UniProtKB/TrEMBL annotation:
Residues 44-144 form the Ig-like domain. It comes from Tribolium castaneum. This is Ig-like domain-containing protein. PANTHER family: BEAT PROTEIN, GH04238P-RELATED. InterPro entries: Ig-like_dom (IPR007110), Ig-like_dom_sf (IPR036179), Ig-like_fold (IPR013783), Ig_sub (IPR003599). Gene3D superfamilies: Immunoglobulins.
Length: 268
């Protein structure tokens, strides 16, 4: 009987403890409902990172909202109600501190309004909300991608009846992929080289193909898989004497030049 009584007392204490912990969690003070961080944004486009939380009015003492970037131990943003928001670290000078996420005095400056995001702001963002009695945090990742400054597709004559197709792009982030195509087929023998410069990537793809017997459509495809971004450039090249080939625009320029010369000679 004593053993049974002891078990009853033991489980009764555990049950009461579980109820107490549950009640404390229910009135814990703060809970982040939704962390809105875009997965992908583009260089220079203003973006808002919002941290929507619920706060018990009776337990709002000591409210502090902090944002952290990656694994840095110091916050990049801090706000205490009735005080001016602070931009710190990598976000210094890059926020609109007048931005209001709500009309509630306890959450008006909870969000980050980044005016001009750059690739260096790609990473994990953690919103940390705390009071004297409770705290909560959530983390999401954002990618700031940078499209190419220009995408070039050109041809070069390397002799021995061999032609070289070259595609290049500059100033891309994150590290891109590139492929060359003839018609609907990818050139598997193409060589791709990527070079990092000032935090951005330059990429170049080259392929050697036999001299042309007729017009061929060549294309170059640049891809940034993380951003679901693809851009393509196409050109039609024609065979020419001397085992060289030109794009249709180059052929048109040559024809116009010949017509101009004939017109001048006729006037003479």
């Amino acid at each position: 009987m004593k053993s049974v009584h002891g078990l009853v007392v033991k489980y009764s204490v555990m049950f009461r403890l579980m109820i107490t912990i549950g009640l404390l969690e229910c009135i814990g003070g703060v809970r982040i409902n939704r962390l809105q961080v875009p997965e992908v944004t583009q260089l220079g486009d203003p973006v808002v990172l919002d941290c929507d939380y619920t706060l018990e009015e009776s337990l709002d003492d000591g409210l502090v909202v902090k944002w952290f970037f990656n694994e840095t131990p110091t916050p990049i943003y801090q706000w205490i109600p009735n005080k001016k928001p602070q931009e710190l670290g990598i976000l210094k000078g890059r926020l609109d501190l007048e931005y209001s996420a709500s009309t509630d005095t306890n959450s008006v400056h909870r969000a980050l309004h980044i005016i001009q995001p750059g690739p260096d702001l790609s990473g994990d963002y953690t919103c940390f909300v705390s009071t004297f009695s409770s705290e909560d945090r959530k983390t999401k990742r954002m990618l700031v991608f940078v499209p190419e400054k220009r995408l070039e597709l050109r041809q070069e004559h390397v002799g021995d009846g061999t032609l070289q197709v070259v595609c290049s792009a500059e100033g891309v982030f994150p590290k891109p992929n590139m492929s060359l195509h003839v018609g609907n087929s990818e050139v598997n023998s193409s060589k791709v080289a990527v070079q990092e410069r000032a935090g951005l990537f330059d990429i170049r793809a080259t392929a050697e193909v036999p001299s042309l017997n007729g017009p061929e459509e060549f294309s170059c495809e640049l891809r940034i898989p993380q951003a679901n971004y693809t851009v393509r450039k196409e050109a039609i090249y024609y065979p020419a004497s001397g085992n060289t080939f030109h794009s249709s625009s180059a052929v048109l320029e040559s024809v116009l030049l010949i017509l101009n010369v004939l017109f001048v000679l006729r006037k003479c």
